[in-house]
Amino acid sequence: MNVQRNLSLSANIVKLFCITVLLTSTVMAQDTAVISLQNNAKWTISKHIYGHFSEHLGRCIYDGFWVDPSLPVNKKDRIRLDVVEALKKIKVPNLRWPGGCFADEYHWRDGIGPRDQRPKMVNTNWGGVTEDNSFGTHEFLELCSLIGCEPFIAGNVGSGTVEEMSKWIEYLNFDGESPMSKIRKENGREKPWKVSFWGVGNETWGCGGNMTPEFYADQYKRFASFAKNYPGAPLKKVVSGASDADYNWTEVCMKKIPLHMMWGTGLHYYTLPSGQWSKKGSATSFDEPEYFATMKNALFMDELVTRHSAIMDKYDPEKRVALVVDEWGIWTDVEPGTNPGFLYQQNSLRDALVAASTLNIFNNHSERVRMANLAQTVNVLQALILTEKEKMLLTPTYHVFDLFKVHQDAKYLPVNLKSPEYISGGKKNPSVNVSASIDSFGVTHISLVNIHPTKQITTVVYLNDIVAKNISGQILTASQLTSINTFEKPNNVVISNFSGFKKNGSNLTVTLPAKSIVVLELK
Ligand code: AHR
Q1: Which of 53, 152, 205, 207 to mutate to test the pocket of ligand 1 (most atoms within 8 A of CB)?
Q2: How many domains does the chain divide into?
Q3: Could you tell me which residues are beta bridge partners of residue 421?
């Protein structure tokens, strides 16, 4: 009897132990993220992943960068200097221009010479407005030099000619005596600019000419053959790449275009909250299911770059060609009452979480992703900056680029991550995403994102010999996912100091608040 009681008691203790272990592990699985940092610096995270995009669209160029002479703000010529200063602070490495769809109806000769003699044109893609060409080649390159970034110019393949593109490059990059360098000098620029990043068309599968990949690959070879490398000015030519999951486009371009003819191939992917182009969803008013869907759509970037990279690996196992995500970001419905062709949208904490998660994805794929351009810098789509007459505000997305600038040109540190799930409507997203790098001074940065809207997540980071004598942190969060900066309250969503971490031996425990972005610095 006693033996039996003892046996059943031990069985119960074992059962209880098992349940406790199970529960603990379930609680762990639900609430704790585990990150293991490998002290094994690999390739460099190219600074060009942190690039931006400025199209002749809505109020990006005109009324964004390039303002009316009477506007009471500091300007150089008509370039707004408060905007320039803000972009310098986040170390914008490159700026893509003039489009977008606009690039394939842009004729560069219309944008040089005395401004009052420049011909006008209709911007058929964006609102049918009259473009006065007052912002052209010289003005764009002056803007880049003020920001301290490299230009990334998209040439016109769709409605342009091989000769037109070829002559533009001669105008920009040739130092000797030639018909184009003569005109450049007459227009006030003695020395060539030596532009390097060169897009051969834009969205040639759509607004850039509705081509098949086979036809475009042949066109690419024609245009690229006459896009010459002048002395001291070698071009980095970028193929007009795939849209979203059009893997066949990448396959055909990689197969048909010799590797030595391209520096990179593009990819465009926009996060649509609803997943539908017809009704994308509001920038400022959304519920939790729509937020969940938005993050799912944003995190799809990981699958896209993985699969496009796998195709590139087949033709380029040495990874000489870059994957250039030259358009990305969240695309919502326009702000009510604004011109639908101008793509003006507000920017919330949700957008910051989209940006930070995407940048973590790019860092983690930086072996192949070596350039990217958020669409678009000022007043259009997922903007860094919004302006209203002389007022200007920095969006939550701007602050993400400020936090993440520490990764630019740092060595990538591989990370293993086990994240709790964020479950909604029976679907799952990982709550946490992360990337890490070590810079040339031996300082490590870890960028952590908790997309869960309500749960704080305890995150254990195994440091594995990474130096961490001094640790500091910064955080971007806000009271609501819909929190925004407005011209009345421009500092509603801003970066603040973060102290929610504790070091225990070689581990770090970080308490990540719900809906937050944290960057830790370890020295
Ligand atoms: O960024 C807005 C537009 O989106 C670009 O002009 C085009 O390339 C893309 O379809």
Answers
A1: 207
A2: 2
A3: 430
